[in-house]
Every structure is written in C-alpha cells, then in structure tokens.
Design brief:
The complex is a heterodimer of chains A (351) and B (139). Chain A has helices at 6-10, 22-34, 49-56, 65-70, 86-93, 103-134, 136-159, 163-192, 206-217, 242-259, 290-293, 312-322; strands at residues 14-18, 37-42, 61-62, 76-79, 99-101, 202-204, 226-232, 238-240, 264-273, 276-282, 326-332, 336-344. With 351 residues, chain A is α/β, with parallel strands linked by helices. Chain B has helices at 21-33, 44-53, 74-84, 99-107, 120-138, and strands at 13-17, 37-41, 62-65, 90-94, 112-115. Classes of the chains: A alpha/beta (351), B alpha/beta (139). Chain A binds chain B through residues 141, 144-149, 151-153, 155-156, 159-162, 164-165, 168, 172, 175-176, 222, 224-225, and chain B through 1-2, 19-20, 22-23, 25-26, 29-30, 33, 68-71, 73, 95-96, 116-118, 120.
C-alpha cells in the first residue's frame, strides 16, 4: 500500500443522514460520539427524535431532503428513510463526488450500529454497577446505625409500660426505617437509571442532579470533613436522559471526593452564557500528574488499583459527547483538579 | 417515662459523643435505664465545650465517643481528652471496625473499642469496667 493511496481515505468523512427515526438517531449518536462530522439530518416527520437531537447539537435539519442533498457539504449520504423513491432523488440531486449508502447496505450499517449501541449501553451499565460495588462498605455502615437504633428501640418498647414512651420509641423506629428505605431507593434508582434505550426525553435540572451526585459520592469515602460549596447560576432545564447525566456527575464528584480523601472543599458551579452551559466540578485534592492527565479518558486507565475499573472518565467523555458537549480538565499536583463540561443549551424554546 | 423517675442512686455521669442524634438517644436511654446520668455532645468540639463548661470537669465519669464526626473527629477529640483529662476513661463506639485504629487507640489509653451495633449488655459491661477504672483514679 503506497502512501499516496491514502489521500482519498484521509479525506474527513462528512455525513448527511436522511431519516431521523430510530435508525437515523442511532447513526447520529454514534457518528457524533466517535467524531464523525454530521452535516445535516432530514426527515419529513417534524417530531422524529433524530431531528430534535440534531438541533441540540447545532446540526442543520430539514423536512425536505432535496435541498440538503443538493448542497450540504457532505461527502457521504446515508439513507435510512426506507422510502423507495429516495435513491432516485439522491441520484438526481447529489453532486458527482458525493457517495451514497442506502437500501441493504444502509440496513446492514444500521444493524451494526445497533449492535455497537447495545454493547456501549452494556458497558455503561456495567460501569455503574461496578461503582455501586465500591460503595458497598460505606452503604453497609450507613445501614448499621439505623438497624442498631431499630433493634434498641424495639427492645425499649418491650420494656416500656408507659404508652407515651412506647409511642416515642415507635416514632424513632419509623424514622430509622424511612431513612433506610430512602438509601435503598437512591441506590436502586441509580442502578436502574438510564437502563435500556430510554430516549433523551427527561427535562433535566442540572443542579438537582449535582446534588444527587454528591449524596451518592458520600458513599465512596468517609466525607465527614468535606465542605461542599454550591455556586449554581441559572441554567435552563435540558432534554436528556437523566440517568446518563447523573452517571456523568456521580463519576466526577466521586473522583473529586476520593482525590481529597473526604477532606477538603468541593465546589460545584453552573452557569450559562451565550447558549453554552458550563458545569464545573472542582476539588482541593491531590491533583493529577501531567503524565496521567494525558491518559485519564483512556479506557481501563486507572490510578485506583483494584478499586477502579478505569471506565469512569471514559464513560463520562462518551456521554458528554453524546449530548454534543465537551469536557475539559485542569489539574495541578497537590492543589486539586477542575473538570468543566460545556453543553449546548438544548432547552426547549419558550412557547 | 418510668425510668426518668427512677429513684435508684445515680451510678455515674457519662458523656456520649456522636454526630447522629438517634444514636445519642439510643445509647443515652440504655445508660439511663441502668441508672447513669447522661450528657450528650454532637462532635468533638461540643464535647470539649461540655467538659470545660462545668466548674468541675470531674463531673463526667466516663466518655463514650464516636470516631467519624464532622469538625473535630473522634481521634482528635480523644487525643485531647487523654491530655487534658487523663483520669476520665474513654470508650470508643464506632461504626467502623478498624483493627489498626483500635490498637492505636487502646495503646493511647482507651478502655474499650466497640463497634455499632453493640449489645446493650456489652456496652453496659464496658461502662462498668470504665467506672471501676475511674474509681481507681479517684481513690
């Protein structure tokens, strides 16, 4: 293979997706998260899920495919409309050097993409379960105190003659039970959140999710000496799968808290400016060495030994990209780390 | 509540330090039923305040102390008590079984290292042992 031959294959792929149903949406998600540029998405159904996703990612959309086919800057058109007349329309309107993929080939591509999506979903789920596994020791402790109280108050009731005393002890028991079930609910909610191919249809309030992430991250290490500073500027609610966003924040906040060994200041900041939402998670922990900083988003890279999967930040990056966002990290050894996420503002326009 | 009106003589005064209110209550009731007087503090700092507030710090006979607490944690507070009030026996009551910590605390003069959930009998027998040490100091 001569080097000169690579010229054609080096040309960056720019894809126009026709059809924004399940197939088109899956392609759009995969392309954007792997860095393939999507130049446009078309679907005659204005409610097609891929159109909404594309708009969130600032990708041109259209109801009528023809205009996009004619002049879009794409060098590959992928047709997953299922429309029998579409291949002829593409052939009629596309520029000569633009390739097109349709029919059986497009269906094959879609099948592969779906497989890829399934694997990715499994990986994301596995990472979540692994994280919950590392929380087990702290969760067990968190259960011990209320269980101790329940046992003792139950004994006090048995020893008590006075109805008022009994009532007081019974109240304490139900307080402990309420606490226990809230912990159990939080954990199982996290385990199940975002499971399957739930569409990105939740209206998500980022500060709420950051708060939830802090509650979860407290199970990763003793956090008695942790100071949490919340600097939540107004951010619009965004359309997303809340489970996926929570996973991003749980990973980042857990890392932050662990880097501080539970002692220090965690600063959570949200802000919006010129259509870009900024979310920053800052710790005063051990920081990351320049050598490690280059590798933190690499799958299976971990500094936590057996306690880490090396998938946390990789999945964070994957999910951030899925929503058209960017993640930036700055760190100084001994002085802490800041992760900043930039999301396009995909809040629904006011009615 | 009957036990509050108990006319048994007071067996001694115990300071219970734990950041969780419900734990303080559970431990406190168990001790009061056994005839002890109970003081409570929610962290090491408050405990030091309680000890220093009285005209006579010897008013506390035994300290029961948690380890993981906000602000001044148990390990720090215990170091302070051992220096300032070496005659007050200390019992650790923690949710975390930690052999290393237990060894170092016992070396530092802690009477017992107990983990939650603890049997009431076990707690009371630890308190009794601590009270005997206390009396040895006092005599």
């Amino acid at each position: 293979m001569g080097e000169r031959m690579t010229m054609e294959s080096d040309r960056p792929v720019k894809v126009l997706i026709l059809g924004a149903g399940k197939g088109g949406t899956a392609l759009l998600e995969l392309f954007t998260s792997t860095g393939v540029e999507v130049t446009g998405v078309a679907d005659i159904n204005p409610k097609a899920p891929g159109l909404r996703l594309a708009r969130g990612l600032n990708i041109p959309t259209a109801a009528d495919a023809t205009a996009l086919i004619a002049s879009n800057g794409a060098n590959l058109i992928v047709d997953v409309t299922g429309d029998p007349l579409m291949p002829a329309r593409i052939a009629d309107h596309k520029a000569a050097d633009v390739e097109s993929l349709g029919g059986t080939a497009a269906r094959l591509l879609w099948t592969l993409v779906q497989r890829e999506q399934d694997l990715r979903a499994q990986l994301i789920q596995a990472e979540k379960m692994a994280t919950l596994g590392t929380f087990a020791a702290e969760v067990a402790h968190d259960f011990n105190n209320p269980l101790y109280c329940i046992r003792e108050f139950a004994a006090f009731i048995q020893e008590e003659q006075d109805p008022a005393g009994m009532q007081d002890y019974a109240k304490e028991i139900s307080k402990a039970v309420t606490y226990l079930s809230s912990v159990a609910q939080r954990l199982s909610q996290y385990a199940r959140s975002g499971h399957g191919d739930k569409p990105a249809s939740d209206l998500v309030h980022i500060p709420d999710l950051l708060d939830q992430a802090v509650t979860m991250a407290r199970y990763s290490v003793s956090t008695d000496a942790l100071e949490v500073v919340k600097d939540y500027g107004t951010v619009p609610a965004i359309r997303a799968n809340s489970g996926e966003l929570l996973q991003i924040f749980v990973n980042l906040v857990t890392n932050a808290v662990q880097a501080m060994n539970g002692r220090g200041r965690l600063t959570l900041t949200t802000a919006t400016s010129q259509g870009v939402m900024t979310i920053a998670i800052q710790d005063t922990g051990s920081g990351i060495s320049p050598a490690n900083l280059e590798r933190i988003f690499t799958p299976f890279f971990t500094t936590k030994g057996k306690k880490g999967t090396g998938l946390g930040l990789y999945i964070v990056q994957t999910l951030v990209k899925k929503y058209g966002g960017r993640i930036h990290v700055s760190s100084e050894e001994g002085n802490g780390t800041t992760f900043t996420i930039y999301f396009p503002d995909t809040s629904p326009p006011p009615l | 509540m009957a036990w509050l009106l108990s006319d048994k003589p007071v067996e001694g005064r115990i300071l219970v330090i734990d950041d969780e209110e419900q734990i303080r209550k559970v431990v406190g009731i168990g001790l009061k039923k056994a005839g002890y007087d109970v003081e409570e503090a929610e962290d090491g700092g408050k405990a030091i305040e309680v000890l220093n507030a009285g005209e006579n710090p010897m008013m506390v006979d035994v300290i029961i102390c948690d380890i993981r607490m906000p602000k001044i944690n148990g390990t720090e507070a215990i170091a302070y008590f051992r220096t300032e009030y070496p005659s007050i026996p200390i019992i650790v009551l923690t949710g975390y079984p930690d052999v290393q910590l237990a060894t170092s605390l016992l070396k530092a003069g802690v009477v017992e290292y107990l983990t939650k959930p603890v049997d009431r009998d076990r707690l009371l027998s630890a308190v009794k042992t601590a009270m005997e040490k206390r009396e040895m100091f006092a005599s």
